[in-house]
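U., I forgot to send this yesterday:
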Amino acid sequence: MPEDRRRFLSTAGLGLAAGLAAPWARAPEPSGPDAAPAGAVAGMYDVRSFGAVGDGKTIDTPAVNRAIAAVAAAGGGTLRFPAGTYACYSIHLENGVALHLDSGATLLAASTPMNGATSGDRYDDAEPNSGDNHYQDFGHSHWHNSLIWGEDLHDIAITGLGRIWGQGLSRGYGSDTPRAEAPGVGNKTIALKNCHNVVLRDFSILKGGHFGILATGVDNLIVANVTIDTNRDGMDIDCCRNARIAGCTVNSPWDDGICLKSSYALNEPRATENVTIANCCVSGSYEMGAVLDGTFRKFPEGFRVPRTGRIKFGTESNGGFRNIAVSNCVFDGCQGIALESVDGADLEEVTITGITMRDIANAPIFLRLGRRMRGPAGRLIGTLRRVIISNVASYNSASRICSILSGIPGHLVEDVKISDVYLDGRGGGTAAMAAIRPPEFPDKYPEPTMFGAMPAQGFFVRHVKNVEFTNVEIACEQPDLRPAFALESVEGADFFRTKTPAGIKPVFALRDVSGFRALACRGVKDTELASVQTKEI
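Result:
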């Protein structure tokens, strides 16, 4: 292994531990404006040696990009940002270069320029892309209009305890002026396309724009110990393979926290696969910045905010999701787990375990197979199958919308096992709600709210084949007149040792169900039904 590559992998993997600051500070001045310091210590370079000022007012983009190019030309290494505020427009990553943000260092997304700004005084324009085809949002189809971007790169990293502040970035919609599509406007903090061997570790993002991190077609990706406190998506992992997301905290009240996607942005369907998400915390109830400053201020009572903040697969779902594990994660004041295939994707082999939730805004668990089919004509409707969800505790969820497993007529969610789950809701469901027949909406954008109020307090299961519930308890704080489980158009449903509120009648509401079995379930005699059109148990 070449020495410079060994050095890069070592420093990026360790996150550049403290103790190297003194040698970096002594790095000599460059001999020319584009030259790396001749005597830089062990491949470490100080961005100030290339003219960066870090006073929060001077635009440091030229110096930063010059430094990155020089480090890459020298064979790679680590570019250090000492304490200070570095106001920048688009920063261009290059092969073999790691950016290290010292504690006290802030990369500041400079204010969006006025119309007519010259090149260098604005963010890079969104690059031409035939994938900008309305199969996904504008933000998903472009990467160059970002604070930090890289394309077709390998062995790159951003590390350190510093911060990236997307103050000048567009959210991509709403009150943005100008909007994200306007030339010279940046709408992402970090955007990577078709890269491999990428490490993002230890830093924080405040106000990340449309995306804090957008990784599209990135293989061998590590995102570890990153904190994102933002006003839209925290991180989108799109069409990526072999990704590890661990120890991250994301507060994103207005959009998703950690979101896996498989869009058509690369002009072909490409799966997101071999992914683990572990030991993360996602939230949607704290004011932006309140997690980073440690105050954890919640929004005032009555303040309208989506409180999204969840872990989700979808909605962009052309290429599929395969071989994915989510474990030991906390959901706080946000929406619940969402697995969605609506654009022709095969969503398969997923395990979700060790999840704790509180104050969930709607469905703690949402599995949706639909036929929105936002993609090239002629594609087949996808699949959603082989999913195991276990060891989930949810407290104080808004009971109007229960957990949902829903396919569409002729296309069933299959092979789902749900075990060791405790769902506590606020209750209050009425007899009128129990009589609701939710609309199908096969073509609609997938969200738990799409069906409106639900006819069950625990789970609504429709167009599903081979589902099993074991050691599942449904609890509610206030009396609820809806059944615990409502099943419609289901083939093969096993319920073992379920618990429901005392006195609830019925526990099960069945419509067009075959292969039903309930054993050792509280309030219900052991029951087996080969086929039933309509029945309450």
